[in-house]
Amino acid sequence: MAKNTGSSKFRKVDVDQYDEDRYEDDINDAVVEQGPNENEVNSLLQRDKYEEALLHVLQNAPVGSKNQAVKDRAANLAVRVLTSFKGDIDQSIKSLDNRNIDTLMKYIYRGFETPSENSSAILLTWHQKAFAAGGLGSIMRVLTDRKRV
After folding, report:
1. Where are the transmembrane segments (predicted)?
2. What is the pLDDT of residue 2?
């Protein structure tokens, strides 16, 4: 038989703090607000350094930014790098770590949202190669991540 202690400590827990509608992502101190430098990416593309341009776009992705204009500009820049890429896609993707592969997948899916002429076919090729490197885990991480590009 349970004791009646008259304790009211359990009533001091604020259960509303665990409400999903009030959830806030952890604040990342190293958030990149400005996104990739467009001038630097353009100069790398003009010098045919496609891998370096891709790496610059992926490493400077404004993932935690709340400014939608910055995210749109970065996404357009990333799609432009992917569509103008000339070289071995497999080798470029194999040189990326898992975090950059996930960011690449985010940009691929973002490129599917706003297709342009022939971009869908190129993005499908990139998706196939990134899926081969990252596997299903990469797709699941991208689709379930709250931080969008």
Report:
1. none
2. 63
Of 148, 134, 129, 52, the closest CA to residue 101 belongs to 134
Which run of H or of E encompasses 90?
Answer: helix 89-94
For residues 46 and 62, give the distance between their C-alpha atoms in angstroms, rounded to a whole number: 24
Find how far residue 39's CA is from the centre of its chain.
21
Is residue 22's pLDDT more than 90? no
* Tens-place pLDDT, residues 41-50: 999 999 999 9
Query: Whole-angstrom Cα distance, residue 148 to residue 144?
Result: 10
Are 86 and 50 in contact by the 8 Å Cβ rule? The answer is yes
pTM, rounded to two decimals: 0.78
